[in-house]
Amino acid sequence: MRESLWAYPIAETLHIIGIAALFGSLLVMELRLLGLGRRIPVTSLARLTLPWSVAGFVLAAAMGLCMFSAHAAEFIGQRIFMLKMGLILAAGINAAIFHSGPFVVVARWNTEVPPPPSARAAAALSIVLWTSVIVCGRMLAYL
After folding, report:
1. In the chain, what is the straight-line distance between the N-terminal and C-terminal CA atoms, in Å?
2. Which residues of the chain have pLDDT under 70?
3. pLDDT tens-digit profile of 112-123?
4. What is the domain partition of the chain in residue ranges?
5. Contact call for residues 102 and 116 (beta carbons, < 8 A)
6. Is the dihedral of CA 37, 41, 42, 46 positive or negative?
7. Alpha-carbon span 139 to 133, nearest angstrom
8. Is there a contact between 63 and 14 (Cβ–Cβ < 8 Å)?
9. Residue ranges in the chain assigned as alpha helix (H)
């Protein structure tokens, strides 16, 4: 990564594209879970957004690992980097709890019915966590 003029900027660009795909698709789903667009079935929206979320995460994580490899010693010593990694872990745990909990009974609240409080809480927490991950990532460049 350090030897090539283009490797790091390309990895960073792809990292941002991955983040955009991840966060954009998540935000659409989370807003639905928070009550917007109740006529749209949650299951239909999940089938549309989940593959984009996963693909965005995989791309962002892969490119993040590439960028980390160029500055590992610097990043490991930064609290903001460790916070970012912790927030990503927390977001993953939040998603796992949602998919093994409220989403299991999504048929009960798929359309027109407000999602249960646990689904709404998971959605709000997801937005906060992923926004915080993005903020931490940007701060890495300046701290």
Report:
1. 21
2. none
3. 889 999 999 999
4. 7-140
5. yes
6. negative
7. 10
8. yes
9. 7-33, 42-70, 72-76, 79-100, 117-140
